[in-house]
Amino acid sequence: MSRLTIIGGGLAGSEAAYQAACLGVDVTLYEMRPLRLTPAHKTGLLGELVCSNSLRSDLADTAHGLLKAELTLANSLIMEAARATAIPAGSALAVNREEFATYITNRLKAHPHIRIVTEEVTALPAPPAIIATGPLTSDALAAAISKVTGDNSLYFYDAIAPIIDADSIDYDLVYYSSRYGKGGDDYLNCPMDEPTYNRFYDALTEADSIAARDFEDVKVFEGCMPIEVMALRGKDTLRFGPLRPVGLPHPRTGEMMHAVVQLRAENAQRSAFNMVGFQTRLRQSQQQRVFRLIPGLQNAEFLRYGSIHRNTFINSPLYLDKSLRLRCGCTTGSTSAKRSSQVEGDIYVAGQLTGVEGYLESTAMGLLAGIFAARQMLGLPHVDPPADTACGALLAYITNIDRGASFQPSNINFGLLPPLDKHIRDRNQKKQALVARALQSWRGFQRLNDNG
Ligand SMILES: Cc1cc2nc3c(=O)[nH]c(=O)nc-3n(C[C@H](O)[C@H](O)[C@H](O)COP(=O)(O)OP(=O)(O)OC[C@H]3O[C@@H](n4cnc5c(N)ncnc54)[C@H](O)[C@@H]3O)c2cc1C
To answer: Could you give the percent of the chain with pLDDT greater than 70?
Structure first.
């Protein structure tokens, strides 16, 4: 049997290598560090954390807690390393970053099925292979990926708008409507009169932002300008941009409002809403404070905060199949997006490059890619993680063709999971029920994977 090539020894590549090797597949893992560093990595260790040393909440009834539980049940190396090197951090799981990366490096080096090569890969590898080169993929390999997908499919920056839990919106203050009535009731509108807009505007322009890093060239952001930067261009700029009220009269009075914030449903069940045009660099605490001034959002619960940062990722709905294999020759258009059925051999993509966001989410896509690739090489049937699990929901999100034309990366949040059969009003009870359902499904997936 041939060897599995994995490019990138970050969180996803390390997890993929470990999972495939544990299934009995021989792996060659290519990592360019320390020969060549990225703008954020500092060592030659595998699984280096580039920024925070926190792997987010460890509480069982949070989305990140659920993801950790699923990864742990799947014998994740990254979770094993995190538990072994954890440091006190309240309800979060934080690690000693050097011990964490050293642990991962030593475990992979000692594995009989894994060979580690220190080299920058500059061309697409021969299949079977997994590309897990992350948000700072080296330029030569990024160019090679773009060449294969044959379109503007590879993005270099994220411009993410916040997502709100539908249950936290005050529906007495908002209304469904599309601009000029075109397109049905696709948008939820938050109307503002002049004094409300002025209060919001002042808070927005006075709020604190996160500074861009040296390698995050702000010129690139012209096309996806942060809402707070756009606001600084003039008091009425937003009213002629994302907050324009024309074509959205208030249904009760027929009046044209001073400004309107639009929310777009994130899924068919309308359990989560995206704030249209609200990509932002504001600190999370400031997003809470300022965006809760918008009528209807006074109690908003943020499933995802807005952000803008350097990030290489593929338009996965168009370029990956359901088992994370790369497709080629797709086409995109403003109104439609077509997915190619042509698979690029058995070349899989994992980690942040797939359009998930965050340490654990990247690990999860590494875990799945490692299992998918190894099972294919061993001639075992494909196993699909159920969409009501955290891992399955992330996979479903990044491969959902409906998102092709406007794909944005996502972290794990409960809004990605399908709603429960029975609506539960109490938020804590709802989260507990989602977690219980997910873990039951994930155990089923694990049994299928374990039984070959
Ligand atoms: C500046 C910055 C700060 C971040 N902060 C956080 C944070 O605080 N919390 C969080 O959850 N997420 C954060 N992220 C996102 C984070 O990078 C990812 O969540 C996670 O590290 C991605 O895992 P990965 O395995 O996909 O990529 P990485 O962990 O980046 O691993 C990719 C690996 O591939 C290697 N590589 C790249 N190109 C090649 C090549 N051509 N040949 C060989 N090897 C190559 C790299 O050296 C690297 O080791 C941050 C990202 C950036 C860029």
So the answer is: 92
Q: Is 125 in the pocket of ligand 1 (CB under 6 A)?
A: no
The verdict on 282 and 407 lying in the same domain is no
Pair 186, 129 in one domain: no
Regarding whether 30 and 12 lie in a shared domain, the answer is: yes
Q: What is the CATH number of the domain that holds 209?
A: 2.40.30.260
Across the chain, mean pLDDT equals 90
pTM for the model stands at: 0.84
Would the CB of 370 count as within 6 Å of ligand 1?
A: no
pLDDT tens, residue by residue, 259-316: 999 998 888 788 899 999 999 999 999 999 999 999 999 999 999 999 888 889 999 9
Nearest CA to ligand 1 atom 10: 358
Q: Is the CB of 157 under 6 A from ligand 1?
A: no
- Expressed in angstroms and rounded, the spacing between residue 351 Cα and the centre of ligand 1 is 8
Structural domain harbouring 106: 4-158+309-450
Measured from the Cα of 311, ligand 1's closest atom is: 53
| Bridge partner list, 155 | 313
The answer, yes or no, to whether any atom of ligand 1 lies below 6 A from the CB of 351, is yes
Query: Considering 266, 290, 305, which residue would you say is the last residue of a domain?
Result: 305
104 ligand 1 Cβ < 6 A: no
Provide the number of structural domains found in the chain.
Answer: 2
> If pLDDT is split at 50, 70 and 90, which confidence band does 334 have?
very low
Index of the ligand 1 atom closest to the CA of residue 120: 42
Question: Tell me, what CATH number does 105's domain have?
Answer: 3.50.50.60
* Residue closest by Cα to atom 21 of ligand 1: 359
Rounded to the nearest whole angstrom, what is the distance from the C-alpha of residue 171 to the centroid of ligand 1? Answer: 40
Q: pLDDT class for 208, splitting at 50, 70, 90? A: confident
